[in-house]
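Quick log. Single chain, no ligands specified.
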Amino acid sequence: MSLVLHLSDTHFGTERAEVVDALLQLAREQQPDVAILSGDITQRSRTPEFVAARKFIDALTARSKLVLPGNHDIPLFEVWRRLFAPYRNLRRAFGRELEPDYEDDAVLIIGVNTTSRFRHVDGRVSSRQIERVRRRLLRSPVSRLKLVVTHQPVHVQNVEDEHNLLHGRRAAMQVWSAAGADLILGGHIHLPFTQALREAHQLPREIWAVQAGTAVSRRTRAGAPNSVNLIRHQPGTAKCSVERWDYDADQQRFATGSITEIALDRRSPD
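-> predicted structure:
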């Protein structure tokens, strides 16, 4: 069994210590193969926030760990650094790679940096990034579970979240769907959900949006507690499950909130 822990929007600087401890405990119990943090690691891209985030990631039980930037990980008020060294603090904490990937016999994970020093909140995926991901997907066997990770979402469920949608998403979904992607993981809106995209976006193959809530921050949305996703896949099968785990304040631990069983589309990619 392959197990991926997907967390997002930790916003260190606004973290809740008890939730951080509970998430570390969940990881110790579940022993994920890979942990993915899909952006907004910090609240204001400050050095102490990245130090706290690095300490958390180091303590997180997982064989491999991937960290992507979000819009909050670029300085907002320090204009010079935003323009000329936007990722300096992030790279000091986590290394130079802004688009990490991972592959083993069961799963392929491709990170896409959708942030920009010239955009305050909005994200964008370029034609060059779309093509890079397409080629990477096509090189991987059809049987492998294929995940693409962005920060801003490619799909939202509420009208009030539409302004947060990733620019370039329509072309990306078409190309990545045809190339064999199974799930597009994201964050940014602090609202967890898992939804099929083929019918709504007229895609050539089925692909799913998997959104994570805010993992440990006090910046939760009404009706959406701190939450993370666990993605389970049995190698050699055409199915996976996405489990949403919510923080239970009474029990001071994460508990299963919902489970979505997914039948993977195994038609040959274009």
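The two ends are 28 Å apart (CA to CA).
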